[in-house]
């Protein structure tokens, strides 16, 4: 017996993939174009625009800042998010329900409002150095991802496992590290990656918090595009895409990607 | 180094709700006592108090002469077996079993020896290097049992350990639990809602209701001499009829039911608690007869159900519907007029509770 597939399904599937992958093809094409302006299909082929990224010091500097912020901001959000997610899951009955939603606020509030209020409070109000304000801002916008994704694996965690460890002589704190953490590892890695990518690609918060001398790669790309409409921006985008794909590939190899779709 | 467990005047609250009320319980060294009751009766709360996961609002808990009441859970040295097995998913069977010894800083050579012995005793030699995800429910509970036993605890506690297993396995596992508990001579507290399970393996059973122990005794005594209507009902005395003593003639007491019928109760078996009392009978304690001369409760037979070893009749009487069993050999028709004759060894008399 043969499964019949409706022709419309094939058409919709193809269109969906075109919609998802088309822009990426355009970007990759533009990045390779041997012209001094963005164009597609590419005219001539060159890797010049890729090397250009590393020759323009503004790009290399902001790339460093971006990676530093993504790692730093995600780490800070993990330090807050894992204990928060643990408390929310462990004391689900005792804690008021709205508390869980508080941690999602950063993605519910319009980013422009959040960015502006962070600028007013962190940068203007407390007069924090730009890099510190950026770090706090990034930690804040990725917090919902860490709390939610880590929370998802904690919700399926059987807390009697923790009690079993305690009954066998572990203190509560030790049991958390020895028994709880290893079993929510997948959630932590998934949360870290989601947060890392979100931070790396953020524009709306960073644009308010960056200032003289300190910028992130996406902001630098924006600024660059306003002045020069050359394919560097496309090649930088391809590079960011490459980093994302590489991270995903590593995760797929070690954990399987299914936990992201669960 | 097994020890006795003593709970004295324990009370516990969840918020403002009282879940245990002045509960006292003593389990002797090497004894297995079950807490039996429906959900919300306080049996699991009691276990969690002893384990140290909850704190009592009043009372004391002693293990041997050690006061556990305010001791943190990890320092109590109690072997626990959970309903969900609670194995460490990221560790092999061997590491699961060895976990407690590792916490106790036992040398790895000594640890290996004790773990291997224990794994052998629960019959899991071939599975020692597997992870829990690759084991069946029964195997998982064996690992949990080995993990709790290997630390040689003075007290073992079981929280509905067999609820997640199928019926056949439940019977095998409870025998296994009893065997290991007796072989080690470990004092044990066993929480369950399954009467058969509790009765089959316990030295004594505490039947609980509303945060209190209603009756604590050997299964034999509970089964034949319940002390209250609640316990009687719990252990299968499905029929309860109010009665009043009308005459006392030497070795017989004659009593009258609310509807007027009389029954005879031999004094050799029954001790009448007061002038008015409750007469309780199991379905097999009322035999259905059509002999005119017999003394019993007049009835009209209603629905008949087949329960395997007998037929069960829903009998309409002046005191309401009673359940009575009749032999398989003679199925009786619906609507037949008959009498229910009490069988003394399947009946008991109880005080009327206010």
UniProtKB/TrEMBL annotation, chain A:
It is a multi-pass membrane protein. Residues 63-251 form the ABC transmembrane type-1 domain. InterPro entries: MetI-like (IPR000515), MetI-like_sf (IPR035906). The keyword RNA-binding does not apply. The chain crosses the membrane at residues 67-86, 98-119, 125-147, 175-197, 233-251. It is found in: Cell inner membrane; Cell membrane. SUPFAM superfamilies: MetI-like. GO terms for biological process: transmembrane transport. Gene3D superfamilies: MetI-like. GO terms for cellular component: plasma membrane. Keywords: Cell inner membrane, Cell membrane, Membrane, Transmembrane, Transmembrane helix, Transport. The keyword Flavoprotein does not apply. Belongs to the binding-protein-dependent transport system permease family. This is Putative spermidine/putrescine transport system permease protein.
From TrEMBL, chain B:
One of its GO terms (molecular function) is transmembrane transporter activity. InterPro entries: AAA+_ATPase (IPR003593), ABC_SmlMolc_Importer (IPR050093), ABC_transporter-like_ATP-bd (IPR003439), ABC_transporter-like_CS (IPR017871), Mo/tungstate-bd_C_term_dom (IPR008995), P-loop_NTPase (IPR027417), Transp-assoc_OB_typ2 (IPR013611). SMART domains: AAA. Gene3D superfamilies: 2.40.50.100, P-loop containing nucleotide triphosphate hydrolases. GO terms for cellular component: ATP-binding cassette (ABC) transporter complex. It comes from the Bacteria. Keywords: ATP-binding, Nucleotide-binding, Transport. GO terms for biological process: quaternary ammonium group transport. The keyword Mitochondrion does not apply. Residues 5-235 form the ABC transporter domain. PANTHER family: SPERMIDINE/PUTRESCINE IMPORT ATP-BINDING PROTEIN POTA (PTHR42781), SPERMIDINE_PUTRESCINE IMPORT ATP-BINDING PROTEIN POTA (PTHR42781:SF4). This is Putative spermidine/putrescine transport system ATP-binding protein. The lineage of its organism: Bacteria, Pseudomonadati, Pseudomonadota, Alphaproteobacteria, Rhodobacterales.
């Amino acid at each position: 017996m043969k499964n019949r597939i409706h022709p419309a399904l094939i058409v919709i599937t193809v269109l969906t993939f075109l919609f998802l992958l088309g822009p990426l093809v355009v970007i990759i094409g533009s990045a390779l174009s041997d012209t001094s302006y963005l164009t597609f299909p590419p005219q001539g082929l060159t890797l010049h625009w890729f090397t250009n990224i590393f020759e323009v010091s503004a790009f290399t500097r902001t790339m460093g800042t971006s990676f530093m912020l993504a790692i730093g901001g995600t780490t800070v959000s993990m330090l807050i998010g894992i204990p928060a997610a643990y408390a929310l899951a462990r004391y689900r009955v005792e804690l008021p329900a709205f508390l869980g939603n508080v941690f999602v606020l950063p993605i519910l509030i319009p980013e422009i409002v959040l960015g502006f209020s962070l600028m007013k409070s962190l940068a203007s109000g407390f007069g924090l150095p730009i890099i510190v304000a950026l770090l706090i801002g990034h930690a804040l916008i990725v917090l919902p991802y860490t709390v939610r994704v880590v929370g998802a694996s904690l919700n399926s965690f059987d807390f009697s496992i923790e009690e079993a460890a305690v009954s066998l002589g572990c203190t509560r704190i030790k049991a958390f590290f020895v028994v709880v953490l290893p079993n929510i590892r997948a959630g932590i890695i998934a949360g870290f990656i989601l947060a890392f990518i979100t931070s790396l690609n953020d524009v709306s918060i960073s644009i308010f918090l960056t200032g003289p001398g300190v910028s992130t790669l996406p902001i630098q790309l924006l600024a660059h595009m306003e002045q020069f409409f050359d394919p560097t921006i496309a090649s930088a985008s391809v590079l960011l895409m490459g980093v994302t794909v590489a991270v995903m590939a590593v995760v797929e190899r070690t954990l399987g990607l299914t936990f992201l779709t669960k | 180094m097994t020890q006795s467990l003593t709970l004295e005047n324990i009370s516990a609250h969840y918020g403002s709700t009282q879940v245990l009320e002045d509960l006292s319980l003593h389990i002797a060294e090497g004894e297995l006592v079950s807490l039996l009751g429906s959900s919300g009766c306080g049996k699991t709360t009691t276990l969690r108090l002893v384990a140290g996961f909850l704190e009592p609002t009043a009372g004391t808990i002693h293990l041997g002469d050690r006061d556990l009441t305010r001791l943190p859970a990890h320092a109590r040295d109690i072997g626990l077996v959970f309903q969900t097995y609670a194995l460490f998913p990221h560790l092999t069977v061997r590491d699961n079993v060895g976990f407690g010894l590792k916490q106790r800083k036992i040398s790895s050579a000594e640890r290996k020896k004790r773990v291997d012995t224990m794994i052998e005793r629960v019959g899991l030699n071939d599975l020692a290097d597997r992870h829990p995800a690759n084991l069946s429910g029964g195997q998982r509970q064996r690992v949990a049992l080995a993990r709790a036993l290997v630390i040689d605890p003075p007290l073992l506690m079981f929280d509905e350990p067999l609820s997640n297993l199928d019926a056949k396995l439940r019977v095998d596992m409870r025998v296994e639990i009893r065997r290991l508990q007796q072989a080690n001579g470990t004092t044990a507290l066993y929480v369950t809602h399954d009467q058969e399970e509790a009765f089959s393996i316990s030295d004594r059973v505490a039947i609980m209701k509303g945060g209190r122990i209603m009756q604590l005794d050997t299964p034999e005594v509970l089964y034949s001499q319940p002390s209250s209507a609640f316990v009687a009902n719990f252990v299968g005395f499905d029929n309860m009829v109010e009665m009043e003593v009308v005459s006392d003639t030497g070795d017989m007491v004659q009593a009258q039911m609310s509807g007027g019928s009389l029954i005879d109760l031999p004094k050799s078996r029954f001790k009448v608690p007061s002038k008015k009392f409750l007469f309780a009978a199991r379905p097999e304690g009322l035999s259905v007869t059509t002999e005119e001369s017999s003394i019993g409760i007049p009835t009209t037979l209603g629905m008949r159900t087949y329960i395997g070893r007998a037929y069960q009749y829903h009998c309409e009487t002046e005191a309401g519907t009673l359940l009575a069993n009749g032999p398989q050999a003679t199925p009786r028709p619906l609507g037949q007029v008959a009498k229910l004759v009490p069988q003394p060894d399947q009946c008991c008399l109880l005080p009327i509770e206010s």
